[in-house]
Design goal:
By secondary structure, this protein is α+β, with helices and mostly antiparallel strands. The protein has one domain. It is about 45% helix and about 20% strand. It is built from 6 helices and 6 strands, in the order ααβββααβαββα. The strands form 2 sheets. A 4-stranded mixed sheet has the order 1-4-6-5. A hairpin with a 2-residue loop joins strand 5 and strand 6. The longest helix is centred in the first third of the chain and has 21 residues. The radius of gyration is 16 Å and the shape is globular.
């Protein structure tokens, strides 16, 4: 799957669906039932030994996802999703601002160390669009 499709249309559609679902909750239920997510996009080799998946690429992705600054961003955001992308994804895709990928909204807020190497994460808080407008755009 091309990585650009993860950034557009998958992430915006997921954000819109989460926002619509959360908006449908009664205000009394919203605090305990609304869905909020941290998501990560990274690329690399993943191995499977029959007992599970492993590899440095997974370690990098999980460290970026679990970084305190990403959790803080979600805690402070009104949006239902915070996305962090690895530097590989940022430099090879995001910064080129392909259609529907707003590169200027990604901030280099996270640094993690895996296997002695430092990795930077770029954080984006997508603004929800109504699902109906996203569906119309996908159908066109």
């Amino acid at each position: 799957m091309p990585k650009t499709l993860l950034l557009n249309p998958l992430v915006p559609t997921l954000v819109a669906l989460l926002a619509d679902r959360n908006a449908s909750l009664a205000s009394a239920d919203r605090y305990c039932r609304e869905l909020r997510l941290r998501a990560v996009i990274h690329a690399g080799e993943v191995h499977c030994d029959g007992k599970g998946y492993f590899g440095e690429a997974l370690d990098v992705a999980f460290r970026l996802l679990d970084a305190r600054r990403v959790k803080d961003c979600l805690r402070q955001a009104v949006a239902p999703l915070v996305l962090v992308v690895s530097e590989n994804i940022y430099w090879s895709i995001v910064r080129h601002e392909y259609e529907g990928i707003p590169g200027n909204t990604f901030e280099p807020l996270v640094r993690v160390t895996v296997a002695g190497r430092r990795h930077q994460g770029w954080v984006h808080i997508p603004v929800p669009e109504p699902v109906s407008s996203r569906s119309a755009g996908l159908a066109a």
